[in-house]
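User: Design a sequence. Structure:
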């Protein structure tokens, strides 16, 4: 079974965070896509929240080493399996839609804390938002 991960923030290409996590060589780029939700600017990084009606754009990757990749991502995202009260993000499998309409089930990290006064990114595209802020 193939394992996919979807990145919508500082783990996308163009940022250095994925390489620093030591997982770059275990990921194969599939393409751009989107998930249902709203995206917010927290300053240093974005927060995705599941929601109907919104789209969050990002990058889909396949991994042949899901255990070490997900362990590294869990640590990066502050996800504690089985303890959502201590988790900054929660990891969920959701449907990613690719531009041609195909869908893939993929792991995504959704924000698990109050959004507060964070501003919503209307385009749902953190990379474009980051270039113009």
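Assistant: Done.
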């Amino acid at each position: 079974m193939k394992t996919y991960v979807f990145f919508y923030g500082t783990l996308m290409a163009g940022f250095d965070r994925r390489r620093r996590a030591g997982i770059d060589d275990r990921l194969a780029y599939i393409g751009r896509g989107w998930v249902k939700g709203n995206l917010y600017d927290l300053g240093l990084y974005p927060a995705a929240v599941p929601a109907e009606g919104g789209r969050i754009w990002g990058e889909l990757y396949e991994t042949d080493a899901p255990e070490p990749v997900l362990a590294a991502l869990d640590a990066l995202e502050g996800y504690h399996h089985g303890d959502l009260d201590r988790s900054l993000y929660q990891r969920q499998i959701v449907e990613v839609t690719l531009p041609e309409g195909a869908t893939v089930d993929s792991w995504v990290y959704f924000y698990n804390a109050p959004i507060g006064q964070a501003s919503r990114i209307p385009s749902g595209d953190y990379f474009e938002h980051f270039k113009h802020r």
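The chain has a mean pLDDT of 93. The domain at 3-132 is CATH 3.10.490.10 (Hypothetical upf0131 protein ytfp).
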